[in-house]
Amino acid sequence: RLVAPEENGFRSMNSVTSSSFCGLSLNPGQKLAVKGALLKLKLQQNLESIAFWGKIMGIEKDFLIAKSLKAGKMEFKTTYYVSVDEGVSFSELLPCPEQKRKMASELKFQMFKGNLQFKYGKAPEEPEEEGKVVDDPRLSEEERLSHVVETIDKETCIVPKGAYVLTATSRVVPNVEYKGLSSLMAKKVSSYVLMQQPVEHKTLTKIKCRGAANTTDFLDGIANAEPKGVWTVQADSTGLVVTLRHLRWTGFEFHTAVGMPSYEGAYFGYGLENHDVALMV
User: Fold this and answer.
1) Which of 15, 141, 196, 266 is most buried as measured by Cβ atoms within 10 A of its Cβ?
2) Which residues contact 113 (CB under 8 A, 6 or more apart)?
3) Beta pairing partners, 77
4) Residue 139 has pLDDT above 90, yes or no
5) pLDDT higher for 136 or 55?
6) Burial 111-127 (b: 16+ CB within 10 A, else e)
7) Is residue 158 within 8 Å of 231, Cβ to Cβ?
8) Smallest Cα–Cα separation from 220: which of 240, 243, 197?
9) Calpha distance 8→216 (Å, rounded)
10) Percentage of the residues of the chain whose pLDDT score is greater than 90
11) Which residues in 13-29 are b (16+ Cβ under 10 Å) and which e?
12) pLDDT value for 7
C-alpha cells in the first residue's frame, strides 16, 4: 500500500517501514519498533510530521534514520533523527559543523563503522601540562552521518508535482485536489519536484509573480538534475506502479501509483556516493 500525502503530513510514508526499496527492507521487529518510536517522538515533541527516511549500513551496526519536516510559510525546517538500537528509540542527529563538512565529504570510499562516537584519524597528543584539555579536531561518525544524510536528502527529497500547494498566505499544505499522476505523466522526470526551499531563479520568479492565487508550481524540479540522466524512471509490468532511482545515490528508490494520490521513498545503502555515475548516464 502506498500512502497519500494528506494521511500523515509532509512526504508522509507510514507504509515505508513495510515496503522494499532496492530489494531491501526492515525486518519485522524493526518495523514494529520504528512505528512505535516515531509515533512517540511525534507526540512528545509535537512535530508537524515525522517519517522513516532510510537505513545507512555500517560494519558493526546499522543506523536507522527518520526525518521531520516543517514547511510552514516556505521555511522547510528539516530535522533528522537516528536510531542505533534497531528502531526502539531515536535521538536528534545534530548538524555537521561547517568547518568539518570538507572532512566528511573526503571520506568517499570508507564504510561507516556503526558507532556514533567513533572518530576518524589520529588522536591528538596528550598535553604535557596536567589537567590541560586539548581540543579534538577529528571528525566524529555522528558528524559524518549527519552530513551524508543531509547531502543525500537534498538530492532525493522528491514528491509528485501537484501533491502540495502554496496558498495565498504562503503556507505549504497537502493538495486535497491531487488525484495522482496519469500513466503518461508518471513516467516523466519532469513530473517530480524537490520538497525543499526552492533556489532556481525560474521557480522563485513564478512564486513572486503568482499574485494572491494558490499554486502547485512553486518547487524546483529534477528534470535538470546534474549529471543529465542521473534519475531513471521505470514502470512495472502492469504499468500501474512507477519507480524512480537515483544513480549517484544508488540506495534511493521512490514509488508512486498511477492515478492515485500515493507515493513513498526511502534510502537503503552504505551512504557512499556512486563515483561511476558519469559513465552510467
Assistant:
1) 266
2) 58, 59, 60, 141
3) 70
4) yes
5) 55
6) ebbbbbebbbeeeeeee
7) no
8) 197
9) 19
10) 78
11) bbbbbebebeeebbeee
12) 42
pLDDT above 50 (res 11): no
Q: How many residues does the chain have?
A: 281
Strands (E), the chain: 51-56, 63-70, 77-83, 91-93, 119-120, 139-140, 158-160, 164-166, 172-174, 192-194, 231-235, 241-246, 252-257, 263-269
**Listed residue (2, 8, 6) closest to 165, CA to CA:** 6
Q: Of all residues in the chain, what percent carry a pLDDT higher than 70?
A: 92
- Listed as own residue / partner, the contacts of 168-172 with beta carbons closer than 8 Å and 24 or more positions apart are 168/212, 168/213, 168/214, 169/73, 170/73, 170/74, 171/71, 171/72, 171/73, 172/10, 172/71, 172/72, 172/73, 172/74, 172/76, 172/218
* DSSP H or E stretch at residue 32: helix 28-45
Question: Using CA atoms, how far apart are residues 265 and 16, in angstroms rounded to an integer?
Answer: 7
What span, in angstroms and rounded, lies between the C-alpha atoms of 114 and 108? 16
β partners of residue 269: 56
Q: Is the pLDDT of residue 16 over 90?
A: no
Q: Is pLDDT at 10 greater than 50 in this prediction?
A: no
